[in-house]
């Protein structure tokens, strides 16, 4: 039957397709597309030996040649484009996609990414179809190192964007999936500090109203193949043995969800968390809890196989429990069309780096840009003389989950193209330095001879794919030496004492496995960054410590290298004198004073001071970049700040002419920024999380109680630097005609938006609700719907939303269920969480509060109304919560309105 017919009639081969001719009688039933998926999986399971089924439980599943079954692996990273497998279209970071507030756009990005996965797999079978994306962890705390990977601090917005991306990844065929997305990271995961051993204390209201919601609404939307548990513990219990997988996740859908462990997490249960005494116990407990695929020890499956076999031998596991996990994996493989290649509509997809994908990358980068403030200097006039300064002005940064760039556009390149190179002056603003040795010579970079900078073999990682760290590991280039004049390096101080050194040819100093320093890296990168150093005062000079190895730099006759491990780290350390040839701010002043407008491009490198394995220390902009910004502002009051970063900063923009923010925008970042600055595109991105004024506004990184500590826009009671949902435009919009109708368990809300300016632009309309007089703490306001619309000057559009009345509910800890409190609620429409243009009040019925039925339900310790100084821990390894005092040794819990005795009834 044709694909078109399948779509038209929505025939589901999982129930059997009468139009598909059955295979000949000798064909095994699992190969017969006439049968349902369930029957085919039953047949295949019955043919697999126990040893073969055990082999299915590791990430790298071997082929079963006797049955003609190919090898399979879980896990293809594709957070904002195909990652780690070489060249691919690179879209904006996930937090940038969140900033678009555009579900249609994000769905199209997901479609493009999944098509590139299919195209790349056609030429390299190591590219997997089981996608480990998106990340739906909520951006609760802006110092989280992986802030770039999430969409928003708000569960509603996060689930909307994640649902769009998963639908794009899945494809729209009723049966066969283009790729199979797995959500990361289950659950309450917002810290890299001690991430493998820390426990997130999450009380029931926070669990249900906040952390579970983004996962639940995305899973219920029907395009998710599974989830990945996080490294951390929740309430004292590791996520990889969490009963929530069974109690919540699997209750949300009838699909056979595949749960894939995070890398190394199965071993962490014993080696780091010490939650179990033996790996056999830990593996069995994970499998019984719902983990179906173990990502551990790389491609070597022998240890996981041995642990599972040991668990079977000890009676900790049954073959039936193994069958359950294998069935879930096979369900995904059947949905991916692996066993029906002749019917798979995605088998011949070859869309890769197409003009449409390139245009989409640019569109996404443009829509992600947020205009934070503007005193009228933007958009720039065509004849503007522009000074461009800053460490990121001529950079197109990648992160750990990026593919390799095919196309590249920096802000400087975009502005040259848009305004003409003759109208743009550039000063990077780095400090130019030389490093003098104790012998009076200087560090020197030798010219590379007979070393091809395009040698692809030098850039390949352990699995043969192009490494996003690019040239960092090369040993075919000459190591640094010393001479009488030395090389002038660009010293970039990224704050917290972390710096990089770059040679005049643009290569960063890096350390390879042989320990020698070379100018060999295009960018800092890699799992362990080998391009970062620290200058440590020592006597009248400095020692230079290489942060990747933790060892000091030495100078020897055969070249410059890090000290050997057995040198006591300091034995041969060289003492350097730092000679400053030019301060960065001096270069900035030189090019800015005569410009009409100064553009300072600041932000972060996604591999330094905030990334996977490393949280940020502060919201502050690095001191080096603050100096450049002050120098530019002092030289020219018409200074515009463009922040290009993976997370918010606390930076004072009050004396700037304008400020913008964008996440690292992928391959088209520079072109997009230039078009917005020039007014070719009116900015309409919106902040997906609160920007706080200072570190003092932040809770502790490990404080997961968003209600008690008043976190995120939902509960924050201070004045933010910029609020959730904020973003300005080059035009103006008016709101009117708010109408609300309650019908059939739904609030039907409509209002009109009119473009009252003279520029065609997008507006992001946001609908919030709040309980007016709640009996317990509720959100100050809570997003229930949003829509991004394009309006020409003078155009008006009526927007309609449907908010189910369950959106007004909260988790009642007294009853252990959702409840809507009767009373007045406000509905608020506007352009941000603080820019409310329309409001009205509705009176909703509901269920009044009732005393806790202690005798019927008992009193769970974690079901407190208010608490301080306490931590929730596991009651047993498999179920239940308990409460204990926190680090201070004492705490306080409040339980309201208890019913401690049975009612007496008088009988007449």
From TrEMBL:
GO terms for molecular function: alpha-L-arabinofuranosidase activity; xylan 1,4-beta-xylosidase activity. Residues 763-833 form the Fibronectin type III-like domain. Signal peptide: none annotated. Gene3D superfamilies: 2.60.120.380, Glycoside hydrolase family 3 C-terminal domain, Glycoside hydrolase, family 3, N-terminal domain, Immunoglobulins. CDD domains: beta-trefoil_FSCN_BglX-like. Residues 1-31 are annotated as: Disordered. Keywords: Hydrolase, Signal. Pfam families: Fn3-like, Glyco_hydro_3, Glyco_hydro_3_C. One of its GO terms (biological process) is arabinan catabolic process. Belongs to the glycosyl hydrolase 3 family. This is Sugar hydrolase.
């Amino acid at each position: 039957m044709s694909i078109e017919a399948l779509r038209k009639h929505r025939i589901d081969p999982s129930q059997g397709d009468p139009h598909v001719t059955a295979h000949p009688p000798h064909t095994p039933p699992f190969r017969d597309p006439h049968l349902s998926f369930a029957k085919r999986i039953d047949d295949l399971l019955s043919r697999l030996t126990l040893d073969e089924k055990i082999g299915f439980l590791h990430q790298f599943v071997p082929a079963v040649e006797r049955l003609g079954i190919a090898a399979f692996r879980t896990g293809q990273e594709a957070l904002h484009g195909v990652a780690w497998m070489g060249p691919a279209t690179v879209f904006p970071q996930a937090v940038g996609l969140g900033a678009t507030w555009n579900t249609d756009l994000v769905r199209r990005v997901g479609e493009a990414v999944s098509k590139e996965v299919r195209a790349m797999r056609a030429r390299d079978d190591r590219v997997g179809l089981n996608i480990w994306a998106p990340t739906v962890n909520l951006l609760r705390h802006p110092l989280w190192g992986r802030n770039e990977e999430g969409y928003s601090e708000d569960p509603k917005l996060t689930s909307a964007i994640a649902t769009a991306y998963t639908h794009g990844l899945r494809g729209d065929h009723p049966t066969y999936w283009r790729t199979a997305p797995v959500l990361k990271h289950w659950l309450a995961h917002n810290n890299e500090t001690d991430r493998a051993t820390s426990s997130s204390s999450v009380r029931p209201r926070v669990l249900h109203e906040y952390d579970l919601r983004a996962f639940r609404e995305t899973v219920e939307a029907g395009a998710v193949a599974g989830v990945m548990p996080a490294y951390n513990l929740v309430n004292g219990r590791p996520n990889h043995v969490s009963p929530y997988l069974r109690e919540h996740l699997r209750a949300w859908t009838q699909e056979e969800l595949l749960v894939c462990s995070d890398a190394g997490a199965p071993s962490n249960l014993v080696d780091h968390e010490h939650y179990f005494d033996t790996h056999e116990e830990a593996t069995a407990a994970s499998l019984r809890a719902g983990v179906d695929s173990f990502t551990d020890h790389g491609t070597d499956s022998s240890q996981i196989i041995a642990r599972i076999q040991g668990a079977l031998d000890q009676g900790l596991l049954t073959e039936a429990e193994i069958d359950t996990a294998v069935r879930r994996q096979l369900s995904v493989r059947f949905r991916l069309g692996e066993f029906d290649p002749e019917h798979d509509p995605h088998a011949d997809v070859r869309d890769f780096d197409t003009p449409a994908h390139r245009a989409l990358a640019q569109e996404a980068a443009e829509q992600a840009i947020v205009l934070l403030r503007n005193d009228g200097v933007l958009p720039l006039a065509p004849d503007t003389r522009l000074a461009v300064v800053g460490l990121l002005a001529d950079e197109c940064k990648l992160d750990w989950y990026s593919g390799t760039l095919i196309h590249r556009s920096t802000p400087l390149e975009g502005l040259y193209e848009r305004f003409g190179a003759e109208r743009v002056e550039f000063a990077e603003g780095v400090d130019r330095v030389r490093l003098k040795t104790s012998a009076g010579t200087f560090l020197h970079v030798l010219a590379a001879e007979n070393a091809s900078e395009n040698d692809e073999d030098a850039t390949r990682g352990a699995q043969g794919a192009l490494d996003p760290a690019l040239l960092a590991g090369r040993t075919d280039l000459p190591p640094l030496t010393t001479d009488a004049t030395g090389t002038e390096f660009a010293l970039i101080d990224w704050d917290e004492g972390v710096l990089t050194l770059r040679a005049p040819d643009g290569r960063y100093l890096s350390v390879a496995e042989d320990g020698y320093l070379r100018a060999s890296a295009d960018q800092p990168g890699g799992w362990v960054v080998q391009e970062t150093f620290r200058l440590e005062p020592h006597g009248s000079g400095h020692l230079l410590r290489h942060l990747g190895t933790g060892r000091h730099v030495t100078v020897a006759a055969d070249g410059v290298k890090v000290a050997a491990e057995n040198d006591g780290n300091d034995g041969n350390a060289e003492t350097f004198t730092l000679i400053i040839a030019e301060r960065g701010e001096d270069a900035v002043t030189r090019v800015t004073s005569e410009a009409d407008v100064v553009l300072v491009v600041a932000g972060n490198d996604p591999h330094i001071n905030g990334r996977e394995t490393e949280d940020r220390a502060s919201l502050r902009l690095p001191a080096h970049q603050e100096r450049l910004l002050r120098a530019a502002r002092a030289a020219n009051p018409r200074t515009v700040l463009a922040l290009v970063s993976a997370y918010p900063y606390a930076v004072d923009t009050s004396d700037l002419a304008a400020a913008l923010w964008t996440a690292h925008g992928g391959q088209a970042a520079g072109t997009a920024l230039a078009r917005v600055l020039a007014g070719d595109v009116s900015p309409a991105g919106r902040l997906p999380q609160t920007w706080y004024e200072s570190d003092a506004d932040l809770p502790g990184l490990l404080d997961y109680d968003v209600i008690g500590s008043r976190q995120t826009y939902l509960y924050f009671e201070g004045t933010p630097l910029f609020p959730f949902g904020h973003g300005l435009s080059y035009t103006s919009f008016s709101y009117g005609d708010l109408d609300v109708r309650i019908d059939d368990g739904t609030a039907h809300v409509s209002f009109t938006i009119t473009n009252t300016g003279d520029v065609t632009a997008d507006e992001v309309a946001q609908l919030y609700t709040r309980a007016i007089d709640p009996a317990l703490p509720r959100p100050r306001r809570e997003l229930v719907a949003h829509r991004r619309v394009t309006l020409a000057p003078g155009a008006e559009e009526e927007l309609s939303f449907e908010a189910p009345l369950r959106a007004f509910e909260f988790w009642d800890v007294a009853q252990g269920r959702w409840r809507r409190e009767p009373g007045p609620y406000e509905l608020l429409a506007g352009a941000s969480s603080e820019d409310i243009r329309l409001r009205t009040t509705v009176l909703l019925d509901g269920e009044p509060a009732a005393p806790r039925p202690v005798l019927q339900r008992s009193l769970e310790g974690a079901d407190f109304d208010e608490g301080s100084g306490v931590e929730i821990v596991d009651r047993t390894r498999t179920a239940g919560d308990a409460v204990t005092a926190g680090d201070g040794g004492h705490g306080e819990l409040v339980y309201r309105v208890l019913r401690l005795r049975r009612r007496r009834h008088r009988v007449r």
